[in-house]
């Protein structure tokens, strides 16, 4: 059931560094530049959406016009011209989406090959189903059949809108409402595709569901929308990873992910985020404004976020858990690495509503170069959260003396029986540790990788095997040139 | 040819420039074990650190030749890969990195530099288990992070285990006996003796002649205030034990 080592290594290799500066020239049919109601209608029409969805998009768009881009994060970047981007691009002929891999555009297959994840090989990644998002339209989905036989729905959300409209309508926006925040609202108006997962009652999904994202169109904003529902007593592990080709323009990425767990259900959501970070000065890197939120609706349900954030010029991301069901559990494990001019403001929100809800936050931040990094975490104990508990541990590691790490915890307790524990440390890689490694013959960069991987171990070991291999390699690559 | 030839070596602290080594010369031929003794603060660790290339010191004069090449021209990691191993007086903790992983990384770094393929997982395991057993290191320790929570004695054993695994040509042992109980001293000394061989040289720093009962040196040097004030055979260690370092007070001045 385990992917061949070779394949795993190839994926790790491919996602590990931006040696590929290629851009696939599949003709896109694009909406014109800019954003207005017509564009929203165009996107909706392109996808042949039902009226309720168009209305929802339009509501979001109109609301967005009244909003301001948030400025509270510790991030600095030039103003984004939202009228200077494209909001829709699809590979040629999205109407006749391929039925099998054989029908996939060979150019696209070659792109995957350059990335090291040719689709044919993916089939051999036993236990991993891949819903590949290329530009904005999902063009290939594997293992769908097998999953369908078990009653698991795993498909592009655009397809789910057509095939399971009642499910989508019931849950879309139920965790992240269209009016939630500037970027989520923008996403609600213009999202193009993403994944939809429904796991039926009582099923432990035996396969890891995995999506490899890739931005491939110049000046195309990426607005993925993912919705995962785990029905009573079910379990699913979902992996999200991404890599992008080298490019000059800054790219806006505003994804929304919504998770819902019913009674006794569990979702494990793992991300390796490796968007292009830009050059040494951050030029050309991705702006990553992501809203990820899970609702533990049912009692004894659990949502676990694991993220390894190594890419992007700007990261704005707070995967959160709303612990509604009694005894529900939220966990957040994060490694964030910023090097050169990268900036990250990331963390989590744990909202305890039900009784005896528990949350655990383990955040490992590594800053190198001139990079800046902020952990921003909210723990809120609502009045009914009898006996709720939170444990937060926030460790920062600095490499060099030009970088910064900041910890901003917000703790709000409105129930006297709730307990909140917060620990934070900041350290540096010591010269003694480095010399100890060097003295054993380990070259400097490998030594840094080893020490940093050790620092992050608690988080990395929560990742599924294949991802852990990839993530460890990423850690090293992300820190290249940070010492010496 | 000498394995290690140190000629009139002068070294100072990078920070502030305080001279520590003030003209050290010694030659270790393949197969030889040299012991270095001397009072606290004499510069014994500094000598081993400078040979190993630790940052924080500047060589202000003299030379160090290893196997015919200028050792001082190499970076610390290159020196290690060339076969120089330092068993630290104070081994360093590396949280989260399993000892076994650390060792494997070190072995593969050498192999990579030599253009060899990575060590087979099975071979590595076999060798590690054999060495651990010989040195009385429980296998559980190999899964624990490098030196984290190890007792003083366990750290020293782990250093010798690393040395055995990495098969260096020049072993620098800095007070590897301190912190060891009497039984452990014997086990570790046996481990070190097992590594003695016609191609390998050792520089053993110690305060106690007891160690030299087990690891019998070919030459004993007395280092006082940055200079070797006397060299001799094993009898010199016994003499030091009986009379201390006061006799060299004049020589060091
Ligand atoms: N990094 C350093 N910073 C400041 N002083 C140092 C440093 N390293 C060595 N020294 C000084 O250099 C001198 C020699 O130190 P060294 O550690 O080499 O002595 P030693 O002979 O190994 O002593 P011991 O027997 O106590 O281990 C001492 O005075 C010590 O304080
Ligand atoms: Mg010393």
Automatic annotation (TrEMBL), chain A:
Residues 213-455 form the SUF system FeS cluster assembly SufBD core domain. Signal peptide: none annotated. Residues 139-204 form the SUF system FeS cluster assembly SufBD N-terminal domain. One of its GO terms (biological process) is iron-sulfur cluster assembly. InterPro entries: Fe-S_cluster_assembly_SufBD (IPR055346), SUF_FeS_clus_asmbl_SufB (IPR010231), SUF_FeS_clus_asmbl_SufBD_core (IPR000825), SUF_FeS_clus_asmbl_SufBD_sf (IPR037284), SufBD_N (IPR045595). It holds the Pfam family SUFBD_core. It comes from the Bacteria. Belongs to the iron-sulfur cluster assembly SufBD family. This is Fe-S cluster assembly protein SufB. It comes from Roseospira visakhapatnamensis.
From TrEMBL, chain B:
This is Fe-S cluster assembly ATP-binding protein. The keyword Metal-binding does not apply. Coiled coil: none annotated. CDD domains: ABC_FeS_Assembly. The keyword ATP-binding applies. Belongs to the ABC transporter superfamily. Ycf16 family. It comes from Roseospira visakhapatnamensis. Keywords: ATP-binding, Nucleotide-binding. It comes from the Bacteria. InterPro entries: AAA+_ATPase, ABC_transporter-like_ATP-bd, ABC_transporter-like_CS, FeS-cluster_ATPase_SufC, P-loop_NTPase. One of its GO terms (molecular function) is ATP hydrolysis activity.
């Amino acid at each position: 059931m385990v992917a061949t080592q070779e394949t795993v290594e190839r994926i790790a290799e491919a996602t590990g560094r931006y040696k590929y500066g290629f851009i696939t020239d599949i003709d896109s049919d694009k909406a014109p530049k800019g954003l207005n109601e017509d564009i929203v209608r165009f996107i909706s029409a392109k996808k042949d959406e039902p009226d309720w969805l168009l209305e929802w998009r339009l509501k979001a768009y109109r609301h967005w016009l009244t909003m301001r881009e948030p400025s509270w994060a510790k991030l600095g970047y030039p103003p984004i011209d939202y009228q200077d981007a494209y909001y829709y691009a699809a590979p040629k002929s999205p109407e006749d989406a391929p039925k099998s891999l054989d029908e996939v555009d060979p150019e696209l297959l070659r792109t995957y090959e350059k990335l090291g994840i040719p689709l044919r090989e993916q089939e051999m990644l036993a236990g991993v189903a891949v819903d590949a998002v290329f530009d904005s339209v999902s063009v290939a989905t594997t293992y769908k059949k097998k999953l369908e036989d078990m009653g698991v729905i795993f498909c592009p959300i655009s397809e789910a809108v057509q095939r399971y409209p009642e499910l989508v309508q019931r849950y879309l926006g139920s965790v992240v409402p269209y009016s939630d925040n500037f970027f989520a609202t923008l996403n609600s108006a213009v999202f193009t595709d993403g994944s939809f997962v429904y796991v039926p009652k009582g099923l432990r999904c035996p396969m890891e569901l995995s999506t490899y994202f890739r931005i491939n169109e110049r000046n195309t904003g990426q607005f993925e929308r993912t919705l995962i529902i785990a029905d009573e007593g079910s379990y699913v592990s979902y992996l999200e990873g991404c890599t992008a080709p080298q490019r000059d323009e800054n790219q806006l990425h505003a994804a929304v992910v919504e998770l819902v767990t019913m009674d006794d259900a569990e979702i494990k959501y793992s991300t390796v985020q490796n968007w292009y970070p830009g050059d040494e000065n951050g030029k050309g890197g991705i702006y990553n404004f992501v809203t990820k939120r899970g609702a533990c609706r049912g009692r004894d349900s659990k949502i676990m976020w694991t993220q390894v954030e190594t890419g992007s010029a700007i990261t704005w991301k707070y995967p959160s858990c709303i612990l509604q069901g009694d005894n529900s559990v939220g966990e957040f494990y994060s490694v964030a690495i910023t090097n050169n001019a990268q900036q990250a403001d990331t963390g989590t929100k744990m909202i305890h509503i039900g009784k005896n809800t528990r949350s655990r936050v383990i955040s490992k931040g590594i800053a190198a170069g001139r990079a800046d990094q902020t952990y921003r975490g909210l723990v809120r104990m609502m009045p009914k959260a009898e006996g709720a508990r939170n444990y937060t541990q926030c460790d920062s590691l600095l490499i060099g003396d030009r970088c910064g790490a900041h910890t901003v915890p917000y703790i709000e307790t409105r129930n006297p029986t709730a307990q909140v524990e917060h620990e934070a440390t900041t350290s540096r890689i010591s010269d003694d540790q480095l010399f100890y490694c060097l003295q054993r013959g380990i070259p400097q960069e490998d030594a840094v990788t080893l020490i940093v991987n050790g620092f992050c171990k608690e988080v990395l070991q929560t990742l599924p095997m294949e991802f852990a291999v990839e993530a460890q390699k990423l850690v090293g690559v992300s820190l290249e040139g940070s010492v010496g | 040819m000498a394995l290690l030839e140190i000629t009139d070596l002068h070294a100072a602290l990078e920070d502030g420039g305080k001279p520590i080594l003030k003209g050290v010369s010694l030659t270790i031929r393949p197969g030889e074990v040299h012991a270095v003794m001397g009072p606290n603060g004499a510069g014994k660790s500094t000598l081993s650190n400078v040979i190993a290339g630790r940052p924080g010191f500047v060589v202000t004069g003299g030379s160090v030749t290893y196997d015919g090449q200028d050792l001082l021209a190499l970076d610390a990691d290159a020196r290690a890969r060339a076969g120089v191993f330092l068993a630290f007086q104070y081994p360093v903790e590396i949280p989260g990195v399993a000892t076994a992983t650390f060792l494997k990384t070190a072995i593969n770094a050498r192999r990579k530099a030599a253009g060899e393929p990575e060590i087979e997982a099975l071979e590595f395991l076999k060798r590690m288990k054999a060495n651990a057993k010989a040195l009385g290191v429980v296998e559980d320790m190999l899964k624990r992070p490098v030196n984290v929570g190890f007792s003083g004695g366990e750290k020293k054993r782990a250093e010798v285990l690393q040395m055995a695994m990495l098969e260096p040509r020049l072993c620098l042992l800095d007070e590897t006996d301190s912190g060891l109980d009497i039984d452990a001293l014997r086990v570790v000394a046996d481990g070190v003796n097992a590594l003695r061989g016609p191609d390998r040289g050792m520089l053993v720093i110690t305060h106690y002649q007891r160690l030299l009962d087990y690891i019998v040196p070919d030459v004993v040097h007395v280092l006082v205030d940055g200079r070797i004030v006397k060299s001799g055979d094993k009898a010199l260690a016994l003499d030091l034990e009986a009379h201390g370092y006061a006799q060299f007070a004049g020589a060091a001045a």
